[in-house]
Amino acid sequence: MAAVSFLASFSPRIHSLSSPFPSPAIKPKRPTNTFQVRSVAAPTEDVAGFDDMVSGTQRKYYMLGGKGGVGKTSCAASLAVKFANNGHHTLVVSTDPAHSLSDSFAQDLTGGMLVPVEGPDFPLFALEINPEKAREEFRDAAKNNGGTGVKDFMDGMGLGMLAEQLGELKLGELLDTPPPGLDEAIAISKVMQFLDSPQYSMFTRIVFDTAPTGHTLRLLSLPDFLDASIGKILKLREKIASATSAIKSVFGQEETRQNAADKLEQLRERMVKVRDLFRDTDSTEFVIVTIPTVMAVSESSRLRASLNKENVPVRRLIVNQILPPSALDCKFCAVKRKDQMRALDMIRNDPELSSLKLIQSPLVDMEIRGVPALKFMGDIVWK
Ligand SMILES: Nc1ncnc2c1ncn2[C@@H]1O[C@H](COP(=O)(O)OP(=O)(O)OP(=O)(O)O)[C@@H](O)[C@H]1O
């Protein structure tokens, strides 16, 4: 692997002392009707490269996950930029409570809404969901208002139906103590919005920058958890309903009750749909990102095993921050690189990881920030 200098790749254009990167150009977006996806050869049986990932207009989801700090955000953002530059309307979503999309793109993408990213050739939007903060707000609202403010809050988070049901059931204790996994539920509910809303139908590539490993696994198993919880709620509801049906029928609430139960059932079905989609080999791929250290490789191996158990398709493993051979003239770097090569061997011999397509990504000489830097990284990683 040759030494990789990001700075050198831009040196003719260095124009600012404070920022060695050229400012991302704000290009006029091409009109939607010129949308075209590069036509490429049909995929092969082996794990194909970026040509395969970019081909076709059917919506595809890429989830990037791994241990904290290995470069998930950089890899996710660089993939999103590459998709957009290859003609896809792309959405990059962060479900990591410690968002770094804004830092990675060097643009303010906060706010929990779709924000356009400036720089790529085709529309690229970012969405940072702050699940933990939302859960805290939920808890505060429940405390401060005795549960009354919760519905508005949950409505805002796309979970209004669930709040409606809980409110109607008067399960105040559940409102005071948010069910475990509510933060992930908020993230999932956003995904449900993508699926259903016409506003999102233009997006043909959706890239997730997921939270570190443990969160990711909870996120993936959440639909099952909610499926079971909603089942319980519905059963409980039935019990309450039969105990109070005489009174309710006098006040004409029977129909409302039925509608509400239908809505809850719809929510459950949506969760199942999301769960199935994330396990759909045709549309979804989970890409594991790691670094060449024994600890990171071991965690990646466990992650792969868990994803296998959840039937989530995994084909690629990015090994990021590999020291280039030119580092050999530095004694410290030479020892470090030897260590990294051992970690790469470990991957090749690992029963969980050896079958994955190995993508080696070099440690570059600058922090990867802004669209030009992400494009640079994307051209190295996504081939
Ligand atoms: N190949 C690389 N060469 C040089 N710097 C890199 C490389 N990959 C990532 N970095 C830098 O490492 C830091 C961490 O990267 P990043 O935020 O992408 O990791 P992460 O896995 O998403 O972290 P977190 O788990 O905290 O969200 C950033 O400063 C990023 O610019």
Give a short synopsis of this structure.
It catalyses: ATP + H2O = ADP + phosphate + H(+). Helix content is about 50%, strand content about 10%.
Task: Explain the overall architecture.
The protein starts with 5 loop residues before the first helix and ends with a helix. It has an 8-stranded mixed beta sheet, with helices on both faces. By secondary structure, it is α/β, with parallel strands linked by helices. Helix 3 (72-85) packs across helix 14 (371-381), helix 5 (131-144) crosses helix 9 (182-196) and helix 10 packs antiparallel against helix 11 (254-278). Helices cover 49% and strands 12% of the residues. Mean pLDDT is 73; it is low at 10-45, 141-150 and 167-181. The chain has one domain: P-loop containing nucleotide triphosphate hydrolases (Rossmann fold). The longest helix has 38 residues, at 213-250. The structure holds adenosine-5'-triphosphate. Adenosine-5'-triphosphate (ATP) is lined by residues 68-74, 96, 98, 100, 212, 320-321, 361, 363-364, 367-368. This is Putative arsenical pump-driving ATPase. Residues 60-380 form the ArsA/GET3 Anion-transporting ATPase-like domain.
Average of the residue pLDDT scores: 73
Radius of gyration: 23 Å
CATH superfamily: P-loop containing nucleotide triphosphate hydrolases
Helix vs. strand class: alpha/beta
Strand order of the largest sheet: 3-4-2-5-1-6-7-8
Q: State the helicity in percent bands.
A: 40-55%
Q: CATH fold name, please? A: Rossmann fold
Instruction: Please mark out the parts with pLDDT under 50 across 5 or more consecutive residues, or reply none.
Output: 10-45, 141-150, 167-181
Q: What's the number of helices? A: 14
What is the second-level CATH architecture?
A: 3-Layer(aba) Sandwich
Ends apart, CA distance between termini: 15 Å
Compressed to H and E, one letter per element, the order equals HHEHEHEEHHHHHEHHEHEHEH
Bound molecules: adenosine-5'-triphosphate
Would you count the extended β strands for me?
8
Overall, the morphology is globular
Domain tally: 1
Strand content: 5-15%
**What is the C-level CATH assignment?**
Alpha Beta
Q: In this structure, how is the largest beta sheet organized?
A: 8 strands, mixed
